[in-house]
Amino acid sequence: MEEKEKVEEKKPLLRLGETVPDFEAVTTHGKIRLSDFKGKWVILFSHPADFTPVCTTEFVAFAQINDELVKRNVKLIGLSIDSTFSHIAWIRKIKEKFGIKIPFPVIADLDMKVSNLFGMIHPGESATAAVRCVFAIDPEMKLRAMIYYPLNVGRNMKEILRLVDALQTADKYKVAAPANWKPGDDVIVPPPKTQEEAEKRLQEGYECVDWFLCKKKLPP
Length: 220
Hints:
The protein is an alpha+beta fold and 220 residues long. The protein has helices at 53-71, 84-98, 113-117, 157-173, 195-201; strands at 24-27, 30-33, 41-46, 74-80, 106-108, 132-137, 143-149, 187-188, 207-210, 213-216. The protein has five helices and ten strands, in the order βββαβαβαββαβαββ.
């Protein structure tokens, strides 16, 4: 009898606009469940390993923007495939060497449960370490943005803050953010959906390049 070929079951990719899977995990702040933070925005990020140089610079940088994220109703959660003891020792070393306290929980994902659930393991980079992922999750637990970086390139914290500001502004005012948008810049008015709306658009007082691309200022 011919042996049947084993086919590895592929997990579905996370998709923007869909509800993210809930999970429970051990962290440096005790056990948490992702759904505990429903009603807040969440930035869930992974790093390859504790006690590594690029990750250390990132943790310092994430700690430095944590207060700004809190102002925006955002919970920051870190993760790597290291133990809680390793996380604690590394966090203590960061405090000793940089004078920076890490204020957010860090998931100890030794069994790779969360890493696999969120597609953080990319074998082309490493089969045993998570790549640098950033997931922006809204208060309804829907995935709104995701960014992936390789092991050897650190993240830009200004871009993470800008992303949060853009998502929250777009939701609040029902608008879109153009390239390089930052708070205070004009936003894009949703394009017309009918020919009649298109004909009216240029007379509605917006700053328009053409009927399909119009901007407006937001209230201060």
